[in-house]
Amino acid sequence: MNANYLQTPIVYLKGVGPNRADSLQSELGIRTYQDLVNFFPNRYIDKTQYYKINQLQRNGTDVQVIGKITHIKSVEQKKGKRLVATFTDGTGQMDLVWFRGQKWIRENLKLNTPYVVFGKTNYYNGFSMPHPEMELLSDHEKGVKIAMQPVYPSTEKLANKGITNRVINKLIQQLFADIKGQFTEALSPKIISALNLISKSEAMYNIHFPQNQELLAKAQFRLKFEELFYIQLQLIAKNMLHKQRIKGFTFDKVGTLFTEFYNNHLPFELTNAQKRVVKEIRADLGSNAQMNRLLQGDVGSGKTIVALLTMLLAIDNDFQACLMAPTEILANQHFVGIQELLANMNINIALLTGSVKKSQRKIIHEQLESGELHILIGTHALLEDKVQYKNLGLAIVDEQHRFGVAQRSKLWHKNTIPPHVLVMTATPIPRTLAMSLYGDLDISVIDELPPGRKPIKTVHRYDSNRLKVFQFIRDEIKIGRQIYVVYPLIQESEALDYKDLMDGYESIARDFPSPEFQISIVHGQMKPDDKEYEMQRFVKGETQIMVATTVIEVGVNVPNASVMIIESAERFGLSQLHQLRGRVGRGADQSFCILMTSHKLSAEAKTRLETMVRTNDGFEIAEVDLKLRGPGDIMGTQQSGMLNLKIADIVKDNDILKTARYYAIQTLKEDPKLEKDENFVINYTYAQLIKHKNIWKYIS
Ligand code: ADP
Ligand code: MG
Description:
- The chain contains 24 helices and 22 strands.
- It is an alpha/beta fold.
- Among the domains are: 76 residues, DNA polymerase, domain 1, CATH 1.10.150; 98 residues, CATH 2.40.50.140; 124 residues, P-loop containing nucleotide triphosphate hydrolases (Rossmann fold, 3-Layer(aba) Sandwich); 159 residues, 3-Layer(aba) Sandwich (Rossmann fold).
- The site of magnesium ion has 4 residues, from helix 12.
């Protein structure tokens, strides 16, 4: 079928009209014929089965029953009335119930006449079926049998406007008739035969009107593959283009600074994972393409040292480097730590954050432009236009998920030739998602913790056990340890949370009185200076307890802190809990994480807590998180369009995704510009998708 025909606005389809067109567009985003045929059912109902009333199960699935209505009555209820019909089939009886459209139904239903009713059942003192689909048995027997009935996603508004599942199905039938069921093939003959796929037309037919289970499965596979294939093709093409087009600075010298540091000042031996990642980065930097690499490593896996070694490579090659962190606390900590590591080397480092004074700022700007400064560490302040480098060769972004895409690309544009970019994240992104979200980045993973770490022991305690927990804190402080107590701060209920925090602080202050105990408190409503002061007291060991909101979530490093108490832990997401727990377990001592909750826990909260207690593995936690919440809530997905997938599911269709990625890579490897005859179909389809914006913008 001519692809242009499918671009026809939906209003022109027979049976649609302006009103329905409006609803279809606003509720389902269906604007064109194309959008309609690509609007796929989200489940199917097997209508080959008929149930007897005495066989019904209390599991709420859709069932089909043959029987007769014996009487109908209106029943008064709190608001308005409901219409109830008694339906019997000889084995038992159930109620058919209507809340809407009662008049029409009352006038049109026939008593004591065989009907086929279809719908979900509820059980309360017997079975009932609200708003059943009804068909006279005589019509039912004459009609075309569709074995698997598609169910399309819908909304309340659509239902109220009478655009039911059946209407959608009829519209699609109409459209299929118009185009005689013919769709332009969208995959190359080579891929079709390699994967033994059914044709596009066959797949489209069976996704909307499945002839049987087997063909439905084939149709689903083929369409999911196609969708994921073109997304991967786009990501990989972008990555390849990027490498070709965007020349980077070649760092070909492993110079004196790197070597000197590595041999004389490295405070520990690198783990094998760190060594491997440094090697991967060096290979990027030594090629003449710009590096665009994501470094994933769980909290405490030692990303900072990798960042530092990379910066030394830049300086060895006469370039400057910058490191951007999401919070002042973190930037400051990087600054102090890196300064310490480089204390005996002749390297100039500066810290630039919002709280750096104007006069000091000016000096930094000048030294950057003259090239006197080698390394600049800071927050968003690094992105200001005034910050100009002599020759920025490397930009590192820590905890990248906290920055937007725009911010990342701003760093790039600090030079005519973009600097190499290394983004680091401690939020492990499940492989599946990483492939889709960051398919255009190269990925390195530190999957090993430095030696000698004792795994953190995590327990779940109810608020009612608080006294025991306090005793435990006391014991830990006695042996010289420090404690974090973290309260949730979620924007919507900020005032309430703030009160929780203050109440908590007071109760702790009562149980841990000065002068024996000293307590720090840090929260978002404090001035940066005060925050810093309190932080420093804790870092220096002057205070034993740090009461805080989640501002300490990222990056803070106090190796002597060995207990993390998370209050109202049921209110935190898994990745946040994991991040918080990562604040302890940084020293040689046994560390603990105590998850405090009330007794009221949702099933999901229970799973989160159990997962935290069971494992310390960030990737495992991320996988559970993905399953619990779906990809929608995972950082980064919102910007990516991965949620707009029409048929594939990036969590469930992991294997298809891998296959699609493999074929996309192969195709572009063999034919980067898609100019070979055998790839004509792919080239054409890809161009169409881009032209009609049916492929989404991804993070770059
Ligand atoms: P993250 O990956 O969370 O940023 P850091 O870089 O802050 O982790 O490292 C956590 C701690 O581990 C730091 O105190 C660091 O000095 C230490 N560390 C890093 N790599 C090693 C290693 N190979 N051996 C021993 N300790 C290490
Ligand atoms: Mg870090």
